[in-house]
Write a structure and sequence with these properties.
It contains eleven helices and nine strands. By secondary structure, it is of the alpha/beta class.
Length: 253
């Protein structure tokens, strides 16, 4: 288990909590590996009826740890490789268990796009959602180019994924990818109540119904592969190199 997240089984719910407050829960390759294992190992465990992902210290996640991400993105020859981040996206795509997210504070990049793989999303009033891929010269990931328009319509998806506009919790609820907005101190209790409600339902009927509601896993993994290829190509583009140079210059300054 990564020291930057915890995985606990609370009765029939597996709770995955991101715990890297000093970096605003920015995700490393090791954290992605642990996230994938937590999801994959639940698939054949009948005792686990529901999964929940949440953050800590008032932050969901600020997205990728860019230093770690850049080191993992290309092999020694400069070619793209399958990273732990990509494996995590595959785990989300192939997951057959109901998935809840409880979002407080920042949800940036993958912190927002993973929500489109969730079945029930709760946000605190302080939650904000943003996907600054284009500003970095990149493209959307996580099958978000498929799932976001399906969830919120093309125009809202374009505004968020391409124009990079930030959404508040209420705007995300209106857009359709957040179910409920609650006060920060009520978020955990509301998420656990939703999990208990799901766990009390007939498990097989839930699994079949969930599968009917979602695109086939192979459609999601095909889109993830397409996005990943384009994402890797964009990483070497002049636009992305200039954007990352500016980002790290500001960081050092």
């Amino acid at each position: 288990m990564s020291g930057h997240l915890t995985v606990t089984d609370d009765e029939a719910t597996r709770v995955i909590t991101l715990r890297r407050p000093e970096k605003k829960n920015a995700l490393t390759q090791e954290m992605y590996r642990t996230l994938s294992e937590a999801i994959d190992s639940a698939q054949d465990n009948a005792a686990i009826r529901c999964l929940m992902i949440t953050g800590s210290a008032g932050v969901f996640t600020s997205g990728n740890d860019l230093d770690d991400f850049l080191k993992a993105g290309l092999d020694a020859s400069g070619a793209p490789r399958v990273s732990n981040a990509t494996n995590f996206l595959y785990a989300l795509a192939r997951n057959g268990k109901p998935l809840i997210a409880a979002v407080d504070g920042l949800a940036i990049g993958i912190g927002t796009t993973l929500l489109f793989h969730c079945d029930h999303v709760l946000a605190s009033t302080s939650a904000t959602f943003s996907t600054p891929f284009i500003q970095l010269g990149l493209v959307p990931e996580g099958a978000s180019s498929l799932l976001a328009p399906r969830a919120m319509g093309h125009h809202r998806a374009f505004s968020m994924l391409v124009m990079g506009r930030k959404l508040s919790a209420e705007q995300a609820r209106e857009a359709g990818f957040v179910n409920d907005v609650v006060a920060p101190d009520q978020l955990e209790a509301a998420a656990r109540k939703a999990a208990q409600e799901i766990c009390a339902l007939p498990a097989e009927a839930v699994a079949i119904s969930r599968k009917l509601l979602r695109p086939p896993a192979e459609d999601l993994t095909t889109r993830i592969d397409q996005e990943t290829k384009l994402f890797s190509e964009r990483m070497k583009s002049s636009e992305a190199i200039a954007a990352f140079t500016r980002f790290f210059s500001r960081k050092k300054g």
